[in-house]
C-alpha cells in the first residue's frame, strides 16, 4: 500500500442499515475522522450523513461525514461494501446472489478505476461469493480484499458457549469456519477457555465434553441471525461492531487471529474461492491465512461448505477466470 492514503478515511458503499451502523461504530470508537457514503439513493445517503453529523455534534467531535462519488475511493484507507438490501425472513444468504451480483457489476469497475489501493472489507451477502467476485475484479492482493465471513457467526458462537458453560465470552476462543451461511461449521477441536482446551476445562469443572451438543449449538448460531431478521427486518448492530473491530485491528496493527472470508490459494485443499478461515489481521490487512489442523469430520464439513461456495461462485461468474 502506498503512503498516499488518508488513514482515517472510510468510504461506505451502501448507506443502509448495515452501512450506517458500521459508520456509527467507527465514530463511537474514534477510528476514522472522514466517512463518505456512496449509494444509488443519494438523498437517503445524505439523510444518513446528516443524522450522523448530528451525532458528531452531540459527541462534540470533529468528524467529516458526507456523500461523495467513486473518486473518493482513490485515497481511502478503507472501502466497506454494504450495498444491497436486507435479508428477508426465511431467505438464505445464497438466495440473494443474483440481486447482489447485479449491484456489484455497477460498483466494482468504478472502485477499481478510482485507483483505490487500500483495504476493502466486504459485507454484502452472500459474503464469501461477493468477496471472491471483488477479489477477481479489483486486481488487489488477497491481503487487501476480504470479507467479514464467519466473524459474526463466531461472536454468536462465543456467546452461546458462554451461556452454556458459564464463562465470560471474552475468555472463550472458538470460531466458525467455511461459508457465512447455512453450511458453516465449528472446528470443535480448537475451542479453548483462556488457553485451556475445552475438554480439560470441562473436566476441571466436573463436566464432560459429550454433554455439549455441537450440532445444536451450530443450529443456535445459525438461527440467531434469522430470528433477528424475522423480528426486526435486518441485522445491523452486531455486523457494525464487527466492521469496526477489523478497522481497529488494521489501524493499530493488532495482528489478531480472526476468521475472515479470505481468497484461498491451496489452503485446506481449496483454490479459487473465498471462505471463512482463521487469518492474522494487521496493518497490511490479511497478513497470513492460517491452515489449522482439522479432524476428519471437520475436513469433510470444510469441503462441503467450500463446495457450496464454489458452486455459487461459478454461477455468479460463469465465464470469469480466476485472476
Ligand atoms: P439496506 O437495504 O438497509 O441497505 C442497502 C443499501 O445499499 C441501500 O441504501 C441501497 O440503496 C444501497 N444500494 C443498493 N444498490 C446499490 C448500488 N448499486 N450502489 C450503491 N448502493 C446501493 O440493507 P442492509 O440491511 O444494510 O444490508 C446490506 C447488506 O449487508 C446485505 O447484503 C445484507 O445481507 C448484508 N449483511 C451482511 C452481514 C454479514 O455478516 N456479512 C450481516 C448483516 C447484513
Give an overview in words:
With 323 residues, this protein is an alpha/beta fold. The chain is 41% helix and 20% strand. It contains ten helices and twelve strands. It has helices at 17-28, 42-59, 97-105, 108-113, 127-138, 151-165, 198-204, 214-232, 237-251, 296-316; strands at residues 6-13, 34-38, 64-67, 76-81, 119-122, 145-147, 172-173, 192-193, 196-197, 256-265, 271-282, 285-289. The strands form three sheets. The chain has a six-stranded parallel β-sheet, with helices on both faces. Strand 11 and strand 12 form a beta hairpin. Helix 5 packs across helix 10. The radius of gyration is 19 Å and the shape is globular. Bound molecules: nicotinamide-adenine-dinucleotide. Residues 13-19, 38-41, 44, 82-87, 96, 100, 103, 106-107, 123-125, 127, 148, 152, 180, 234-235, 239 line the site of nicotinamide-adenine-dinucleotide (NAD).
Defining traits:
alpha/beta; 323 residues; 41% helix; three-stranded antiparallel beta sheet; six-stranded parallel beta sheet; binds nicotinamide-adenine-dinucleotide; globular
Concise account of the structure shown:
With about 325 residues, the chain is α/β, with parallel strands linked by helices. The chain has ten helices and twelve strands.
Amino acid at each position: 500500500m502506498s503512503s498516499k492514503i488518508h488513514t482515517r478515511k472510510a468510504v461506505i458503499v451502501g448507506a443502509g442499515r448495515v452501512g450506517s451502523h458500521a459508520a456509527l461504530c467507527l465514530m463511537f470508537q474514534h477510528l476514522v475522522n472522514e466517512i463518505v457514503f456512496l449509494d444509488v439513493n443519494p438523498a437517503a445517503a445524505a439523510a444518513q450523513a446528516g443524522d450522523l453529523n448530528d451525532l458528531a455534534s452531540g459527541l462534540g467531535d470533529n468528524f467529516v461525514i458526507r456523500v461523495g462519488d467513486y473518486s473518493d475511493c482513490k485515497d481511502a484507507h478503507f472501502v466497506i461494501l454494504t450495498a444491497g438490501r436486507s435479508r428477508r425472513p426465511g431467505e438464505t444468504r445464497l438466495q440473494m446472489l443474483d440481486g447482489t451480483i447485479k449491484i456489484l457489476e455497477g460498483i466494482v469497475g468504478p472502485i477499481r478505476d478510482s485507483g483505490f489501493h487500500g483495504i476493502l472489507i466486504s459485507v454484502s451477502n452472500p459474503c464469501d461469493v461477493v468477496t471472491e467476485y471483488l477479489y477477481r475484479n479489483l486486481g488487489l492482493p488477497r491481503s487487501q480484499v476480504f470479507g467479514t465471513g464467519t466473524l459474526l457467526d463466531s461472536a454468536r458462537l462465543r456467546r452461546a458457549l458462554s451461556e452454556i458453560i458459564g464463562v465470560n465470552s471474552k475468555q472463550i476462543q472458538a470460531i466458525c469456519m467455511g461459508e457465512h451461511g447455512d453450511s458453516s461449521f465449528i472446528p470443535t477441536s480448537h475451542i479453548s477457555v483462556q488457553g485451556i482446551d475445552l475438554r480439560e476445562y470441562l473436566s476441571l469443572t466436573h463436566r464432560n465434553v459429550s454433554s455439549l451438543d455441537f450440532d445444536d449449538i451450530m443450529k443456535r448460531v445459525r438461527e440467531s441471525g434469522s430470528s433477528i431478521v424475522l423480528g426486526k427486518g435486518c441485522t445491523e448492530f452486531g455486523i457494525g461492531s464487527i466492521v469496526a473491530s477489523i478497522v481497529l485491528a488494521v489501524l493499530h496493527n493488532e495482528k489478531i487471529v480472526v476468521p475472515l472470508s479470505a481468497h484461498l490459494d491451496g489452503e485446506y485443499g481449496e483454490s479459487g474461492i473465498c471462505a471463512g478461515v482463521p487469518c492474522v489481521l494487521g496493518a497490511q490487512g490479511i497478513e497470513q491465512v492460517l491452515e489449522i489442523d482439522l479432524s476428519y469430520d471437520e475436513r469433510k464439513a470444510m469441503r462441503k461448505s467450500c463446495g457450496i461456495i464454489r458452486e455459487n461462485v461459478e454461477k455468479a461468474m460463469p465465464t470469469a477466470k480466476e485472476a
